[in-house]
């Protein structure tokens, strides 16, 4: 396909430090292609006058993207229509359909998630002295099973409907979060009253139970196991239920903006001893979550090598709050808005699970397109 010009495979631009730091196209490093998609926050940008120079290595909507070096080799992504302008780094490769009558670009993206691709990837990815690596020549040797274009489009439409709904939910979640934050800032800018965190919350740290990787491997399951900055694993049991706020205690405890590392979590879950577990007492957990996103914690972090935010220091943290009357109003508003966030997020997880279940069955032909369409119609 590459020889016929049906499929274009390329890699990224090797940027110099002097070319970055402007307000032009984003320079997308491989580490910013995560399991959850693209991470745009704080990404470096080229100087605007370099746009023409880097344009040949710029992403196009419909590209399938693959990481080609390091432990994440073979992680894939997709460039949606609403993506901002960005340039690939050298450790990202793109696959681009140049003939939509032979290769549907979205089908290609889903095929890159299939076992057929990953079995070949495992056989091809070889190590350098430093890390695994997948060359352009290796990628061009990969073989793809292509059904008729009509079937490709049917499969991409089915799976795409699920991803489109997930994307809609993500936009609603992001917009709601931004509105909540703006409402909080508006309130405290009028009048604020700092209070020690210890007067506002209940700590549940005594219920935490750390598990080693070996222990977790023995009890795989559906419940998230949280660390200081995110989900570390999934296990078959839980020790907490319902909305809680996690605040990093060891390691990842402070952001580049000097704010605490926080996670608003709900459902059933487990937490290790690297994150404080809090719920609101005088204020809702939801209002507390927003307030900590704007509270400077740098003066309370200790440890030069391993940053730490211990419970005693965290309790001393002065949290800016609006007047008592406004706090009551915000509590109600934020609880309602966050309930919407939870519903949309839970729905997205369910839809993602369904997509991941349907994908291998559709790719292998074990599930008929007509039957899959009915399943998706009922889901969305």
Q: What is the level-2 CATH architecture name of the largest domain?
A: Alpha-Beta Complex
Main β-sheet description: 4 strands, antiparallel
Strand content: 15-25%
Give the fraction of residues assigned to helices. Answer: 25-40%
Q: In CATH, what is the homologous superfamily of the largest domain?
A: DNA methylase specificity domains
Overall 3D form: globular
Number of helices, where a helix is a run of at least 4 consecutive DSSP H or I residues: 10
Order of helices and strands: EEEEHEEEEHHEEHHEEHEEEEEEEHHEHH
Specify the structural class. alpha+beta
CATH fold-level assignment of the largest domain:
Adenine-n6-DNA-methyltransferase TaqI, Chain A, domain 2
User: CATH class of the largest domain, anyone?
Assistant: Alpha Beta
Strand element count:
20
Uncertain parts: none
Chain-averaged pLDDT: 93
Distance between the termini: 35 Å
Strand numbers in spatial order across the main sheet: 1-8-5-6
- What radius of gyration results from the CA coordinates? 24 Å
How many separate domains? 2
How does this structure look, described?
With 380 residues, the protein is an alpha+beta fold. It folds into two domains: 7-146, DNA methylase specificity domains (Adenine-n6-DNA-methyltransferase TaqI, Chain A, domain 2); 194-321, Adenine-n6-DNA-methyltransferase TaqI, Chain A, domain 2. 37% of the residues lie in helices and 19% in strands. It contains ten helices and 20 strands. It has helices at residues 51-54, 105-111, 115-124, 136-141, 149-190, 213-218, 285-292, 311-316, 324-364, 369-379; strands at residues 7-11, 26-28, 33-34, 37-38, 64-67, 76-78, 86-88, 92-97, 126-127, 132-133, 195-196, 201-203, 220-226, 231-235, 240-241, 244-248, 262-265, 268-271, 275-280, 318-319. α5 (149-190) packs parallel to α10. The chain starts with 6 loop residues before the first strand and ends with a helix. The mean pLDDT is 93.
